[in-house]
Amino acid sequence: MPRPIEALVHADALTHNLARARAAAPDARVWAVVKAAAYGHGIARAYEALRGADGFALLDLAEAQLLRELGWRGPILLLEGAFEPRDLELCSRLNLWHVVHHVAQIDWLAMHKTQAPHRVFLKMNSGMNRLGFTPTAYRGAWARLDALPQVDEIALMTHFADADGERGIARQLQTFVEATRDLPGERCLSNSAATLRHAADAQVRADWVRAGIMLYGSAPDFPSHDVAHWDLRPTMTLRSRLIATQQLAAGDCVGYGSTYTATGPMRIGIVACGYADGYPRHAPGLAERSTPVLVNGRRTRLVGRVSMDMLAVDLSALPDAEVGAEVTLWGHGPQGSTLPIDDVAHAAGTIGYELMCALAPRVPVRLADAAPAAR
Asked: Which CATH number fits domain 236-367: 3.90.1200.10, 3.30.450.20, 3.50.50.60, 2.40.37.10?
């Protein structure tokens, strides 16, 4: 039989979370962000559940082509734009919208030969300091694009650095509003955190919102708020089974480096999952700090260091858990149980985004039946 680990993608949860994005910004259009293979879920698996979006946003031309092959005829936005001049040829052929964030991209457009002018999103660096024109250079970039016959409509765009935290968006919002005052074109400002936390403000939700991590059942501002607070549902389950049990005595150690020492008699289970499957090696399994796991739907904890192919869990309070018992690393467990991916990521000192995207190619992934109701 195959190794008992698999990931499930819950299409009904994806559709539900998309509806939550619409509810948070009811008069805006929604980009479903499907970069990084739909955050590890797979674009082909997520497509039907997310096709109710107004458009798809991503990075790679190959992923854009896949969406067209799947039958999508609506807007597709390249969030980092063209990487070289010849990318614009595929933008013309596939009717892709693309972000312009650097003067070189304007130069490439000026040289591009196309029968149909392009729809572009001009990005402002309003404080994130990754991509975009500074506020003082923004109008000049807009004027250059507006003069090009290769360009049709110009939308105005920025990205918030602190929409998920106490610093908030006020400074960046003010910078963007002042620098774009009187410029025509649709606006696109909000990522998931801004959509959920700040989109009651019409200036923030604007014409388009970019729903990313919220679509995939992770709270963008965890631990300030969890998925239950935002009424989001887990869209990925990583599950496996116990393949062995061990009985420990006081003083016995677990795993590489002997990082966990039993203080008394205890039973542990060995799970067919490790860092080669995408589970974080740095997830703690210490006496004083550990990572949550479900065994047969009941919450327990990681013990010891995660290995390449295995990890160990505490079965002290689970006397009935034997070889073959179902283990939920994150997502939906049996009997309606749930382990939010944010709980696991937080324990491991990372974020749900990374766990989803790190799912290894060797893990089988399939679409699940309707997700069970959370307990």
From this structure: 2.40.37.10
